[in-house]
């Protein structure tokens, strides 16, 4: 049978041509696939970097804000004696936990930064007016303080408002419960490291994040891959929170 | 008609191409969405920080106005309550002084920015004395020890450009409360997304010249006899201590850095607070203003030294007569008098008194510095008198002893024929004596006349044993108060006295609540 020239063109791949085309096609597909994977990994890396930066900023913003508005407070029972004071004062760093509304020292518990802020809000959440009471400024006629604690729980850095460490439930007002403010924390440390009031005008702390974009998690046995460590030093803006101040404001 | 296989292959290529394009489009769209979420979150974070900068700038502006008492560009608004929204007073700015009762001072401004995120930070601030709502309780309100504190409420508003959507990081939304559709501070809808941050500060008068306490002692105090310790404020209408109200609430009348001197009050009265660290102060039953211990605070700063580079007029000391025929004359504030006495300066009953004269009749415009390298002594009926318009600063290298007629800063006990004639007591801030010696040196006030001034001799052993009272402040190593005379701390020293107050933050609170969500702290 006589065949046309066109049919010859369509059907005329030799085995070598076919293998060459398959090979080239595979290379192109592999390259495209690799580019796609690289793009996805780049996106993931950028995203994890962005999340990490956000975590760092958020933690610093939280702690800095609470340090700026912290005051000196000895109304919390169980806080450590730092050798200067016989009663514990905030700001303070200790290892322990909140039990039944009181602070209980326990060296096996996480390092916790405890600050106190004045009760600026009443029970309905309305701002109260400042006034003097025994020479010091309090808010509202009842005065009082609210402790705010920072500590690590698993991979989370917790911010606890009040004396209860139960997790805040969805929709719950953030009072007397704890919430995670970062969920990728490897280590949280504060200077001084434990059992001491803040004998300075500042609070210094560092947070090491677990690396997100790696195949191997950081650990003490694998120190080669470590996440970002953030150091911060925040001035205690209220003078009576500072140990070097002598005036009762 | 039979179709050949090549036609079918071309159709598959089209489908595959469309599918590939669709998948790539989805991938791109997803990537863009994710990255735009990141950009949006970054923008909102930036807006959040920008608004803090604006609010802090507003606080700084108010602090500057309070400390300089300069209110250019400010409005005084009569109102029974602080504004919740930004006020818009008409007319030209009319504030001339700190706000009084039933009013607040108001100022607003903005910062222009360039680049990404918002291009402007709008901020406004109010200052009030606590007499407008929300008001503190009637008494003492924002007044402590006769000193008025002020509430500063600063607000900054920054636009939050970009899509109206919350951050893709849920944890951010608990902290950074961006008003996307609802104003968290005012309630109601917002036309464009914005970030609002508010700071409330209580600014209180601060001590100047180290006189924030009545008695600042490094190691201890011993009290006996009929004298007591209390405080008053010479800025409160009448500067005479004898008609004072006794301010029992002042928390800083007596402070001991580290009680290693076996301090004993012997149940004498302190009408005010005692703060100290170290061993227990004995017999402190009659401390009326409360005891705070341990109460760590630093040792007093070293006494100020004579100004260098001044053109001192030098006299030789010694003998029982003051030099220059017993007359030192102050100079105007722009050209103070500098007098140096080499050796001891003694004013005794056998000699003549020493009179610190005014150069003119204007308060705060008569200034003199006197440097005595040896001892400074009055004895017998000898005395030093200082015109009430003069501000005198002494630097004494040795012991300081005032007995007999003492040192009259003003002469409230005098008559028309006295030298100096009768005058109201001078401000304690008009006389400062720095003791430059060591812990072996002493300051002694055993006279029968009122002493009004500040003695800043952080190394000295101090003794008040006469029948005359002491008003002002003392900074020393130890103090023995054993006579019938009492010590009255002048609280005005802690706030600049007659020359006005300086202010600092007493409370700094950032209001990060969101009432609509029930979120506080």
| Tally of alpha and pi helices of chain A | 2
Helix content of chain A: 10-25%
- Shape by Cα distribution of chain B: elongated
**How many DSSP helices of chain B?**
2
Report the biggest beta sheet of chain A as strand number plus sense, adding barrel if it closes: 7 strands, antiparallel
Summed up, the domain count of chain B is: 2
Query: What is the SS-derived class of chain A?
Result: alpha+beta
Poorly predicted regions of chain A are: 245-249
Note down, in words, how this protein is organized.
- The complex is a heterodimer of chains A (about 250) and B (about 525).
- Chain A is about 25% helix and about 30% strand.
- Chain A is α+β, with helices and mostly antiparallel strands and about 250 residues long.
- Chain A has one domain.
- In chain A, strands 1, 2, 3, 6, 7, 8 and 10 form a 7-stranded antiparallel sheet that branches. A 3-stranded antiparallel sheet of chain A has the order 9-11-12, with helices on one face.
- The longest helix of chain A has about 55 residues, at about 15-70.
- Chain A is elongated.
- Chain A starts with a helix and ends in a 14-residue tail after the last strand.
- By secondary structure, chain B is an alpha/beta fold.
- Chain B has 2 domains: about 40-205 and about 505-515, no CATH class; about 215-495, no CATH class.
- Helices cover about 15% and strands about 30% of the residues of chain B.
- The relative contact order of chain B is 0.12.
- The interface between A and B is large, with 61 and 70 residues.
């Amino acid at each position: 049978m006589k065949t046309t020239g066109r049919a010859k063109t369509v059907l005329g791949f030799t085995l070598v041509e076919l293998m060459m085309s398959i090979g080239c096609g595979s290379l192109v597909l592999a390259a495209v696939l690799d580019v796609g994977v690289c793009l996805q990994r780049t996106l993931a890396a950028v995203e994890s970097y962005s999340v990490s930066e956000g975590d760092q900023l958020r933690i610093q913003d939280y702690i800095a804000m609470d340090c700026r508005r912290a005051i000196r407070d000895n109304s919390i029972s169980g806080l450590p004696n730092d050798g200067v004071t016989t009663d514990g004062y905030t700001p303070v760093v200790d290892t322990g936990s909140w039990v039944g509304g009181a602070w209980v020292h326990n060296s096996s518990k996480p390092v916790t930064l405890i600050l106190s802020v004045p009760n600026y809000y009443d029970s309905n959440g309305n701002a109260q007016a400042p006034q003097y009471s025994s020479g010091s400024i309090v808010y509202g006629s009842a005065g009082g303080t609210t402790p705010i604690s920072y500590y690590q729980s698993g991979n989370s850095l917790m911010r606890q408002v009040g004396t209860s460490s139960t997790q805040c439930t969805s929709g719950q007002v953030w009072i007397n419960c704890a919430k995670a403010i970062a969920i990728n924390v490897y280590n949280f440390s504060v200077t001084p490291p434990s059992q001491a009031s803040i004998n300075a005008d500042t609070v210094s702390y560092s947070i090491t994040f677990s690396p997100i974009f790696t195949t191997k998690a950081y650990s003490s046995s694998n120190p080669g891959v470590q996440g970002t460590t953030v150091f911060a030093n925040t001035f205690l803006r209220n003078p009576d929170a500072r140990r070097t101040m002598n005036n009762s404001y | 008609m039979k179709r050949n296989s090549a036609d079918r292959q071309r159709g598959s290529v089209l489908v595959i191409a469309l599918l590939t394009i669709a998948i790539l489009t989805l991938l791109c769209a997803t990537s863009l969405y994710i990255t735009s979420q990141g950009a949006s979150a970054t923008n909102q974070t930036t807006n959040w920080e920008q608004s803090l900068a604006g609010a802090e700038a507003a606080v700084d502006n108010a602090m500057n106005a309070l400390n300089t008492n300069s209110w250019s560009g400010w409005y005084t608004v009569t109102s029974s309550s602080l504004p919740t929204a930004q006020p818009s007073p008409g007319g030209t700015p009319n504030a001339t002084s700190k706000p009084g009762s039933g009013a607040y001072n108001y100022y607003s401004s903005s910062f222009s920015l360039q680049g990404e995120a918002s291009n402007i930070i709008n901020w406004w601030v109010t200052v009030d004395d606590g007499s407008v709502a929300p008001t503190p309780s009637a008494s003492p309100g924002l007044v402590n020890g006769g000193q008025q504190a002020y509430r500063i409420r600063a607000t900054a508003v920054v636009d939050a450009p970009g899509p109206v959507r919350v951050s893709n990081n849920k944890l951010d939304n608990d902290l950074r409360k961006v008003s996307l559709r609802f104003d968290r501070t005012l309630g109601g809808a917002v036309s464009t997304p914005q970030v609002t941050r508010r700071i409330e500060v209580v600014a209180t008068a601060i001590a100047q010249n180290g006189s924030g306490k009545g008695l600042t002692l490094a190691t201890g105090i011993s009290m006996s006899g009929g004298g007591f310790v209390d405080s008053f404020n010479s800025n409160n209408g009448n500067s005479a201590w004898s008609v004072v109200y006794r301010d029992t609430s002042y928390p800083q009348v007596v402070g001991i850095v580290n009680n290693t001197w076996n301090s004993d009050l012997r149940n004498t009265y302190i009408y005010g607070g005692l703060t100290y660290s170290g061993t227990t102060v004995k017999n402190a039953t009659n401390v009326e203003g409360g005891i705070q211990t341990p109460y760590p605070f630093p040792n007093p700063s070293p006494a100020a030294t004579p100004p260098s580079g001044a053109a001192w007029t030098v006299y030789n000391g010694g003998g029982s007569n003051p030099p220059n025929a017993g007359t030192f004359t102050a100079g105007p504030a722009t050209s103070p008098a500098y007098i140096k006495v080499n050796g001891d300066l003694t004013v005794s009953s056998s000699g003549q008194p020493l009179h610190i004269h005014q150069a003119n009749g204007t308060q705060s415009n008569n200034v003199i510095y006197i440097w005595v390298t040896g001892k400074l002594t009055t004895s017998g009926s000898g005395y030093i008198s200082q015109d009430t318009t003069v501000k005198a600063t002494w630097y004494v290298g040795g012991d300081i002893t005032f007995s007999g007629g003492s040192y009259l800063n003003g002469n409230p006990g005098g008559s028309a024929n006295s030298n100096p004639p009768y005058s109201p007591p001078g401000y304690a801030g008009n006389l400062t004596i720095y003791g430059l010696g060591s812990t072996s040196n002493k300051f002694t006030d055993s006279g029968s006349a009122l002493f009004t001034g500040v003695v800043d001799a952080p190394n000295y052993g101090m003794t008040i044993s006469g029948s005359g009272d002491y008003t002002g402040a003392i900074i020393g190593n130890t103090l023995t108060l054993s006579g019938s005379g009492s010590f009255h701390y002048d609280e005005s020293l802690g706030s600049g006295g007659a020359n006005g107050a300086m202010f600092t933050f007493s409370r700094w609170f950032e209001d990060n609540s969101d009432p609509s969500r029930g979120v506080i702290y």
